[in-house]
Amino acid sequence: MRIRVAVKKDVVKISNLVKSLSHFYLKDQKNELPEWFDKTLAQSEFLKRIEGSEYFNFVYENEGEIIGYIAMKGSSHLFHLFVSEKYQGKGLARELWGFASNVCVSNIYTLRSSLYAVPVYRKFGFIESGVAGEIDGIGFQPMELRV
User: Fold this and answer.
1) How far is the C-alpha of 1 from the C-alpha of 51, rounded, in Å?
2) What are phi and psi of 144, to 5 degrees?
3) What domains are defined for the chain?
4) N or C of the chain: less Cβ packing under 10 Å?
5) Containing H/E element for 59?
6) pLDDT exceeds 90 at position 145
7) What percentage of the chain reaches a pLDDT higher than 70?
C-alpha cells in the first residue's frame, strides 16, 4: 500500500470511489444527490482538478486498487477526503491527511465536512468554525485547523 500523486489514468477509479461514498453527504442517505452536486463528481471534473494547478491530488493505492483519495485546493483547503468503506477505521484517512498536510503546508487549514465525517476531522484536530448548513439535502459543517 502506498500514497502517491494522482495522475490522469486514475480519474475513473477516483470518480467511482467518490461516487460510491457520496451518499454520506446527504442528510437523508435515502435521497438522491442533487444534479448540480452529482456533476461535480463526474470524471471530467476530477480530470480538471488533476490536470490543473489549483489542486493537489493524492491517492492511496493497494495492489492497483485506489482505496483512498485526498484533494487539497491550494495549500490550505481540504477539498476531498475519501476512503473505501471496506478500509474505513484502519487509519488510512489519517495517513492521507498526514501526507497531504506535509506537502501542502499552511498555518490554517479549512474544509466543509459532510456531517458524517465531522468526528474524523475532530480526531485530526479540526474544530467547527461556523454553523452547520444544508443545501438541497446536502449537510455540511465548516471546520478549521490552526497549526
Assistant:
1) 24
2) -150, 160
3) 2-106 (3.40.630.30)
4) C
5) strand 55-62
6) yes
7) 100
- Is the pLDDT at 30 greater than 90? The verdict is no
Among candidate residues 33, 9, 10, the one with its CA nearest the CA of residue 20: 33
61: number of Cβ within 10 Å = 17
CB 6 within 8 A of CB 14: yes
107: number of Cβ within 10 Å: 8
**Residues 114, 142: Cα–Cα separation, whole Å:** 9
Vertex 122: Cα angle to 120 and 127 (nearest 5): 140
The position carrying cell 489519517 is: 94
CB atoms within 10 A of CB 58: 20
In tens, the pLDDT along 109-144 reads 999 999 999 999 999 999 999 999 999 999 999 999
| Tally of CA atoms within 13 A in the half-sphere of 135 that contains its CB | 8
Share of the chain above pLDDT 90, in %: 92
Contacts of 33 (CB under 8 A, 6+ apart): 22, 23, 25, 26, 41, 138
